[in-house]
Amino acid sequence: MRTLSELLAESKIFADREVLSPHYVPEKLQFREKEINNIERSIAPALKGMKGRNLFIYGKTGTGKTSCTRYVIEEVSKMPNTRARISYINCRIYNSRFRVLNKIISDHIPTYAKRGYGAVDLYEKLTSWIEEDSKILVAVLDEIDMVKDLDDLVYTLTRINSDIKAGGVSIIGISNKVSFKEELDPRSLSALYENELVFSPYNANELYAILKDRAARGFKPNTISDEVLRFIAASSAKAGGDARFSLTVLSKAGELSEEKDISTINIEEVQDSLKIAESEIVYELIATLPEHQKLLLYSLSLLSSSGGTYKKLIDGTDTYLFSGEVYSRYKSLSESLHKECKSERWYRKYLSELEMQGLIISYESGTGIRGHTKLIKLLYPPKKIQSVLEKELFGEDSKTPNPEKGGESAAANSD
Predict the structure, then answer these.
(1) In the chain, what are the helix, strand and coil shares in percent, each to the nearest 5?
(2) Per-residue confidence at 413, pLDDT binned at 50, 70, 90?
(3) How much is the average pLDDT of 264-272?
(4) Residue 358 — pLDDT band, cuts 50, 70, 90?
(5) pLDDT at 6 (0 to 100)
(6) What per-residue confidence (pLDDT) applies to 409?
(7) Which SS3 state, helix, strand or coil, does residue 27 take?
(8) Checking DSSP bridges between strand 194-199 and strand 318-322, what pairing results, if any?
(9) 33-199: CATH topology
(10) 120: helix, coil or strand?
(11) Would you list the domain boundaries of the chain?
(12) From 3.40.50.1970, 1.10.8.60, 1.10.150.240, 3.30.565.10, which CATH number describes the 4-21+202-285 domain?
């Protein structure tokens, strides 16, 4: 146990911890020039006082969606004499139409937002504020799929453009889920008139360059070698190309070295930090999944642990499951918990979402293996997935449900 004086002493490892944070936005974002340019093009009409097309940005966690958007927002904030007014809203926190509208009002008319008005009052105030001098409001909705009444929000924001004579509203939506718009009401969907931008995962070389740049500013000289940085980059690329994950590993490895009172970061500390970071990332990902995706992932973990109805396919050290047996287990689990099982169409969408989140991988088998079928592999240890999901789905003290036996205790806890 380190004493308080030791904790307050100058670090042997860190020069600037802030630049190692996944939330830090550097002056230059590497390997995202094209994406930044696309976001700038989307906002450019608003800077001239014109309504632009809405933009929806997709990509796995840690691909730079939020960082690039906030980078552009910061650039816009430095520009004088523009009619654009930007609100950045984290929809994990502001997760309803009322909260989003209130956040926008708070950003631009703070005294009005504190008066306890309802959604209609906020809407009317917002429209009059936009119209009074032809402003263009750019609403940046990060993790937009987290909004509970998303239909109402999208319809409300797009409706402003029909209700005012001057000015307008543009939406920039950021999401990990490509298919979330398919759940929107046709009225909301038809009003969007949007462009789309997809962020690809980083490869190992890109992650290495990002880590090297951050390490040079975040650590003291000769703290970490190129070999160790490349090891982190390769491990992170294999885990899905998540820059946030790689930076978390880098920072935690520094903390572990500091706890050991050594002045260098070695492979041993990195391997330990990989385990810690993996657990944290998996928990965060799973906690935000919709209920039926959690049920599907839980079904996958059960099958991966115990073996499926059909013989598992083994390719080296990788174990794959047939899509049909996964759906059957998901259906049984849903019914045992008195949940309405989603159709196979939705099941395929859920698989795509889980794959985009980096939790599973799948591929088409081609002919010769039970005909033409999809093969699925869980990318994390099934027991770890199960332990997280049992707390999420059934509560701390509930027992694992058995779909074949009805799962009454879990069902009681889940209602």
Answers:
(1) 55, 15, 30
(2) very low
(3) 97
(4) confident
(5) 60
(6) 36
(7) coil
(8) unpaired
(9) Rossmann fold (3.40.50)
(10) helix
(11) 4-21+202-285, 33-199, 289-414
(12) 1.10.8.60
Nearest one of 77, 40, 70, 52 to 136, comparing CA atoms: 52
DSSP string for residues in 264-309: SB-HHHHHHHHHHHHHHHHHHHHHTS-HHHHHHHHHHHHHHHH--S
What b/e string do you get for 325-349 counting C-beta neighbours within 10 Å, with b at 16 or more?
bbbbbbbbbbebbeeebbeeebbbb
Q: What average pLDDT does the segment 7-35 reach?
A: 89
CB 185 within 8 A of CB 206: no
**Block residue for tokens 């169409």:** 345
pTM for the full predicted model: 0.78
Please state whether beta strands 374-378 and 318-322 pair in parallel, antiparallel, or not at all (unpaired).
antiparallel
Neighbours of 221 (CB within 10 A): 7
Amino acid at 313: L
Tens of pLDDT along 131-152?
999 999 999 999 998 898 999 9
3-class secondary-structure state, position 173: strand
Domain 289-414 listed as CATH 1.10.10.10:
yes
Least confident of 7-11, 54-58, 270-274: 7-11
Q: Residue 317 corresponds to which amino acid?
A: T
Tokens of 134: 């032809």
Tens-digit pLDDT profile for residues 53-62:
899 999 988 9
The residue ranges of DSSP E strands in 206-273, in sequence order, are none
DSSP summary character for residue 48? T
Give the Cα separation of 297 and 290 in Å (integer): 11
